[in-house]
Write a structure and sequence with these properties.
This protein is mainly β. 0% of the residues lie in helices and 60% in strands.
Length: 129
């Protein structure tokens, strides 16, 4: 189904629509920006377990994606890694680490490849209310 998005002046500036397979999995989402003649599409790919394996972003029907996110999971289906490529160049690495005993999020590490800047966030204690 197509959705028309309007700006603050109630003028249409973007059309959005989605393509799904017979099982309801999102295969592609498309945005058509009217004023700047930009067509942006996101293509979604899934692994054999039905988990999202990658998202590729294209502009104006170009053959190669401008950005791609690749996801990896552990045996339980928890996301453990996300790699981001821009114009085919690896730019960002996100590692997600779970506590072995509780399987709760233990920490995540994000690295910006170009600068080698690294962010580490650790979760020491969970409190449930």
């Amino acid at each position: 189904s197509k959705t028309i998005v309007s700006n603050n002046y109630n003028l249409p500036y973007k059309e959005e629509w989605e393509i799904r397979n017979a099982d309801g999995y999102l295969l592609e989402s498309i945005e058509n920006f009217k004023m700047i003649e930009l067509l942006k599409s996101k293509k979604y790919f899934y692994n054999e377990k039905g988990l999202l394996s990658s998202i590729a972003i294209y502009e104006n029907n170009a053959p190669n994606p401008i950005e791609e996110n690749i996801f990896k999971y552990d045996a339980l289906g928890n996301l453990i890694e996300k790699h981001t490529k821009r114009n085919g160049i690896f730019i960002k690495d996100l590692q997600i680490i779970y506590d072995n005993k509780t399987q709760l999020l233990g920490s995540f590490i994000q690295r910006e490849v170009a600068s080698n800047l690294m962010y580490i966030v650790r979760f020491k204690e969970y409190k449930f209310y």
